[in-house]
Design a protein that fits this description.
Elements (H helix, E strand, L loop, with lengths): L3 E5 L4 H12 L3 E6 L10 E4 L5 H7 L7 E4 L8 H20 L6 E5 L3 H4 L28 H16 L2 E7 L2 E2 L9 H15 L3 E2 L4 H5 L1 E2 L2 E2 H13 L6 E5 L5 E2 H12 L3 E2 L8 H4 L4 H11 L6 H4 L2 H8 L10 H5 L8 H14 L5
Parallel strand pairs: 1-2, 1-4, 2-3, 4-5, 5-6, 6-11, 7-10, 8-13
Antiparallel strand pairs: 9-12
Helix pairs in contact: 1-8, 3-5
Amino acid sequence: MEQIALVIGATGITGSNLVEKLLDKGWKTYGLARNPNKHIKNLNHLSADLLSLDSLRTALENVNPTHVFITSWMRNDTEAENIRINSAMVRNLLEVLAIKKTVQHVALVTGLKHYLGPFEAYAAEGFLPETPVSEEHPRLDIENFYYAQEDEMYAAAVRDHFTWSIHRPHTVIGKAVGNLMNMGTTLAVYATICKEQNRPFRWPGSAAQWNGVSDMTDARLLAEHLIWAATTPAARNEAFNVVNGDVFRWSTLWKKLAAKFDIEPIGYTGTIYSLEAEMKDDAPVWEEISTRYGLKENNLERLASAWHTDLDLGRPIEVITDMSKSRKLGFLTYQQTEESFYDLFSQLRAEHLIP
């Protein structure tokens, strides 16, 4: 039977890497986004508003997917709104697909906020998990839009008889423009500004993150993990952590990243510096840099998400991830995190997004 993929959020870091992997593997692939990226060759582009049933029905009228990959979410001002909006997106999608009776598997991408708490209480006192975080850890006793998304998927799976998988990456490293959570590109843009303005590459995070052990998730590895879980019987109806497989310390990696841009690194000095505050006046600086070097994107906000980098690097504890569950079931793909950053920087330069 032909494998037909529907990727929700096909323009994001995870979604764009996933559609490329699926196409490489010969899947018929549809990519749905509010504003599709039509530069991906052989991808069937769909445009729809996940909050509108009519919009989804129109976009999916002639689409009969066997596998659905949900990689999209929408940021709101409060967690209550995050829950309302993001659960509706999952519910609406699966309701529209239910009538087709073709869906065999649904994969949902969430993240480590499952263990750390939502943005409003992110890794705050009272919500500090044991690390390494494990899929066996119970849900926190706090509202979390990831839980609401999961519950919508569980209910639809019972109703429509499909299998499912949940994927919880750590910080995802990969290329995307206009993405809400984009540490790799954010740091590349920040480093470029530092170089052009002769500013120090200042560490914006906590002592715990600077000195502790951490891990990350390459978007390419996450894409492989999504396809593996969707096609491996033993991985059905399971939640998985997914990271590169190595660990590192920012105190070492920060200096190496600075060296890639030939700039001066400054590590933790006893104070957390907000990268969002550091870059708040840099929009015109980036426009000037973009003009000088003929870059493709002159809108700083479409490249850098400093607020999210602050959240990740400002955690009061080190955060590492137990991936034993996937390993035991046969997912053995490995990616060195340092190389993930270097590969990203090379890609950003090749595509004229940084000089």
